């Protein structure tokens, strides 16, 4: 899926045409990749999930970790289809009970990602899911959380990649699978 | 098997929060006609409901003292129980001609999409302010202290669509009421609201604007914690 054009699955074009690009959101200069329009097309949404499920169903994935909030849209359907646990990775103070956190950099300042203690066990094979990879900061924080509890991160999966931001290099050597590039 | 009567006779965590006596809780529960629990709607004795209820963890005093938080993340760690939730909702809604499933941020994003995918409906996220790009409409609703707002993309909904609203839990119904308002303002017909967990309505008023509410299970009790 993230390979060269000749290998591109025919469903990918349909998904790409459904992504809406919104200029200057949330602030000037940003071309926002809006995936909510993919969710409005049941076939495009189903194709998105199917493409990931076909890739991961035989890879023995025991946990799908989704990054709040748009990772929650794609992670659970994948988890359900492959019989894996779903673990939400959340902004601070949203998860009740005991959590661990990982800090990551924003353009200005830092933020944190939290995960429940006990949700993921040593030896779990994990997939990290988000709608989009930009700088890779959030995904790197997610990988760190999972590795700290002894899970093996098999791959990161995103619908969209912004390759010019080189997020792929920030995944601690983990492979990235994406469906659509935006340059 | 838990029934509404059983809940009235046990310590109700929500009424403890409010300092109600047991009599007051009984009175409020009888007045409420708004909630339909799955166990009373064709799913009596269905073992899946117990599996779902058992998988939900109770965290006392979160996010603040007195609240017995119903944590569905433990349900998501149990692929069989999570699938039961989706299957029960899909079986109920697949023949109701639902064209749109609206999920409330953020836990409604976990349950809504699998249902939408299975019944061939669109999914629309209802979000906190400032998150959705493009043209949005917003609806205010009351919190215990203060107010919040929910937003919806106005271009996502066509007139006369048949909509389902999903969230993980209903407490006062304020968020669901705001969701119904947003969809109706855009011309959709809200067929039903669906939640995994439903707290008994302590105020005795139906805040769901006349729309039916379908709930799978009642709150888990802290003493029943199996984890």
Topology:
The complex is a heterodimer of chains A (183) and B (227).
Chain A: H1 10-18, E1 20-23, E2 31-34, H2 36-39, H3 42-56, E3 63-67, H4 71-82, E4 85-89, E5 99-105, E6 110-116, E7 125-133, H5 137-148, E8 152-161, E9 176-181
Parallel strand pairs in A: 3-4, 3-7, 7-8, 8-9
Antiparallel strand pairs in A: 1-2, 5-6
Helix pairs in contact in A: 1-3, 3-4
Chain B: H1 4-9, H2 13-18, H3 22-31, E1 35-37, H4 47-55, E2 57-60, E3 68-71, H5 73-76, H6 79-93, E4 100-104, H7 108-119, E5 122-126, E6 136-142, E7 147-153, E8 162-170, H8 174-185, E9 189-198, E10 213-217
Parallel strand pairs in B: 1-10, 4-5, 4-8, 8-9, 9-10
Antiparallel strand pairs in B: 2-3, 6-7
Care to describe what's here?
The complex is a heterodimer of chains A (183) and B (227). With 183 residues, chain A is α/β, with parallel strands linked by helices. Chain A contains 5 helices and 9 strands; from the N terminus they run H-E-E-H-H-E-H-E-E-E-E-H-E-E. In chain A, a hairpin with a 7-residue loop joins strand 1 (20-23) and strand 2. In chain A, helix 1 (10-18) crosses helix 3 (42-56). Chain A is globular and about 40 Å long. Chain B is of the alpha/beta class. Chain B has 8 helices and 10 strands. Chain B has helices spanning 4-9, 13-18, 22-31, 47-55, 73-76, 79-93, 108-119, 174-185; strands at 35-37, 57-60, 68-71, 100-104, 122-126, 136-142, 147-153, 162-170, 189-198, 213-217. Chain B has a 6-stranded parallel sheet with strand order 1-10-9-8-4-5, sandwiched between helices. In chain B, helix 4 (47-55) crosses helix 6 and helix 6 crosses helix 7. Chain B is globular, with a radius of gyration of 17 Å. At the A-B interface, helix 3, helix 4 and strand 4 of A face helix 6, helix 7 and strand 5 of B.
């Amino acid at each position: 899926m993230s390979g060269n054009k000749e290998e591109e699955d025919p469903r990918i074009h349909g998904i790409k045409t459904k992504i809406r690009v919104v200029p200057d959101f949330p602030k000037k200069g940003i071309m926002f990749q809006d995936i909510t329009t993919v969710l409005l097309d049941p076939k495009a949404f189903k194709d998105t999930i199917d493409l990931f499920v076909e890739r991961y169903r035989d890879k023995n994935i025991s946990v799908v970790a989704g990054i709040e909030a748009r990772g929650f849209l794609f992670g659970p359907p994948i988890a359900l289809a492959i019989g894996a646990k779903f673990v939400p990775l959340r902004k601070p103070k949203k998860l009740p009970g005991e959590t661990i956190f990982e800090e990551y950099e924003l353009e200005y300042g830092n933020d944190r990602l939290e995960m429940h203690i006990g949700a993921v066990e040593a030896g779990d094979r994990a997939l990290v899911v988000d709608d989009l990879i930009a700088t890779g900061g959030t995904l790197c924080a997610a990988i760190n959380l999972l590795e700290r509890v002894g899970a093996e991160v098999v791959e990161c999966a995103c619908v969209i990649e912004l390759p010019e931001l080189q997020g792929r290099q920030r995944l601690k050597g983990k492979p990235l699978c994406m469906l659509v590039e935006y340059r | 098997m838990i029934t509404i009567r059983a809940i009235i006779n046990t310590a109700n965590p929500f009424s403890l929060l409010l300092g109600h006596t047991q009599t007051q809780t009984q009175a409020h529960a009888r007045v409420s006609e708004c909630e339909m629990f799955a166990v009373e709607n064709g799913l009596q004795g269905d073992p899946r409901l117990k599996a779902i209820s058992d998988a939900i963890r109770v965290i006392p005093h979160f996010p603040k003292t007195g609240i017995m938080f119903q944590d569905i993340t433990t349900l998501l760690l149990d692929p069989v129980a999570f699938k039961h939730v989706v299957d029960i909702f899909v079986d109920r809604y697949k023949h109701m001609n639902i064209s749109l499933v609206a999920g409330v941020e953020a836990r409604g994003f976990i349950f809504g999409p699998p249902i939408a995918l299975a019944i061939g409906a669109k999914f629309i996220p209802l979000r906190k302010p400032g998150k959705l790009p493009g043209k949005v409409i917003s609806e205010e609703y009351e919190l215990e202290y203060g107010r919040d707002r929910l937003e919806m993309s106005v271009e996502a909904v066509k007139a006369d669509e048949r909509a389902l609203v999903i969230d993980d839990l209903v407490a006062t119904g304020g968020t669901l009421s705001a969701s119904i308002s947003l969809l109706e303002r855009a011309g959709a017909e809200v067929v039903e609201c669906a939640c995994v967990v439903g707290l008994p309505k302590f105020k005795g008023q139906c805040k769901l604007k006349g729309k039916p509410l379908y709930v799978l299970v009642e709150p888990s009790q802290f003493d029943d914690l199996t984890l």
